[in-house]
Amino acid sequence: MKTDWKTIGWRDACAALALLATSTIAPAWADDAAPDWSTATVRKLDPANGRVTLRHGPIANLDMPSMTMVFRATPEQLQGLKAGDAVRFRAERTDGAFRVLAIEPDGAGN
What we know:
CATH 2.40.50.320
């Protein structure tokens, strides 16, 4: 069957072009969906106030160098952790506060 390009119409052509364009850039969105894991040592836990102090390495998604600072975290995220533990974590900045998205023991140490 031969395609009659004159009858396709602008709407169909634009829809096809949009589909093609988004299908090639979708993987870039997936890469930015979750921050990279960073490593740290737990310095202090304050589950009652939803805080953890971490001495961390660079945090790429926050463009932050190594330092010691306080992050917000839920008491559930801090269960099983203690000062001195090596951890890996993901963090973001929302509403002016740095928050732990995920945190877990780092078997490799840091």
